[in-house]
Amino acid sequence: MTSAPSPPTSTAAISAVGLSKSYGDRAVLTGIDLHIPEGTVFALLGPNGAGKTTTVQILSTLIPADGGTARVAGHDLVRESDAVRTAIGVTGQFSAVDNLLTAEENLLLMADLNHLGRREGRRRAVELLRRFDLTGAAAKPVVTFSGGMRRKLDLAMTLVGDPRIIFLDEPTTGLDPRSRRTMWEIIRGLVADHGVTIFLTTQYLEEADQLADRIAVLDGGRIVAEGTADELKRLIPGGHIRLRFADAGELAAAARLFDYATADDEALTLDIPGDNSVLTVKAVFDALDNASVRAESLTVHVPDLDDVFLTLTGEGAAR
Fold first, then answer.
1. The predicted structure's pLDDT at residue 151
2. Co-location of 165 and 257 in the same domain
3. Is the pLDDT of residue 16 over 60?
4. DSSP string, 19-70
5. CA 179 to centroid of chain Cα atoms
6. Same domain for 189 and 291?
7. Is residue 143 situated within a structural domain?
8. Is residue 36 part of a domain?
9. Which residue among 59, 69, 103, 314 sits deepest, i.e. has the most Cβ atoms within 10 Å of its Cβ?
10. pLDDT per residue over 254-274, tens digit each?
11. DSSP string of 160-191?
C-alpha cells in the first residue's frame, strides 16, 4: 500500500529518521520516520502491540532507541535530553494523579516539581483549574472524581510546566462519549489558542478523524501509511454510489446502464463503484435521466478510518 503524499516542508516540532527498538528477539520498531510541524495534531494509529507507546516513550526520553535519530522542539533527543524534557509534557494511558490529594494540591505538587516559585505555582494552579472547569472541585480529593474529571486534571498537570509539545498516549481510554468530546474540545483549544503541538496515540478512529491534521498508521513496527484523514481514506477501495428503486423493473433498467454495478434484488438497491466526486454523481444523474429511469434515493458511501485500519493492519494488511 502506497502512502499518501508527504507534507510540505515546515518547521518541525518533532522529526525522526530510522527510529528502531527491539526487546530481545522481538522488533517493536523497525525504522520509522516522522515529520510533525509545529502547532498541529499528529495521530499515531495501530493495533495493540504495534509500537505506539514505545514511540511515545522514546520521543519523550523515557527509554532509548536502539537506532535512528530524532529532534524534539529543536533539540537532539540524545545529546540534549534535558532540554527536550523541559519542552514537553506527557499524559499516559493511566492517570498519574494522586488520589489522596485534592485537585489543587496535585497541581501545586506538579508546580514544585517544575521548580516554579510559590506565587507562580499558585497562579498556574488557579488558571488551570479555571481552564479545565475544575474550580468547583479544587478542594475535593481526587478519589471522589469521575473518570472524565481525573483525565482533565491529568492533562492540567501536564500543562503546569507550559510545554510546547504534548504527548497524549490514549488520553480518552475508558471515558464515556460526553467526557471524550469534552477532552477533544480541550485538545483543540490547546492547539488553536496556545499553538501547542499534540502527538496523539489512540485506538478510537473517530478521535483521530476529529482531531488530527495528519495521521500515521503503525503496524508491525513500521509506518504503513501516512496522510490526512481524507488522503488515507482515498487509499482504500470501496467508495460507491447507492441507488434505491421503487420496483424491480426500475432496478433492472438502471443496472443495464452502469458497468460493474452490483444489484441487490431484495433491497432494490444498485451500488455503482466510483470516486464519489460531484462530477461522478452528476454523471449518474445524467445517465438515469437520459434513460428515463427514476431512483427513489441516492446515497454516497466512502471508506472511513475503520476501513483504513482494517485494510492496512493485522490480517487485512498486504505483506
1. 86
2. no
3. yes
4. EEEEETTEEEEEEEEEEEETT-EEEEE--TTSSHHHHHHHHTTSS--SEEEE
5. 17
6. no
7. yes
8. yes
9. 103
10. 999 998 899 999 999 999 987
11. TT--SEEEEESTTTT--HHHHHHHHHHHHHHH
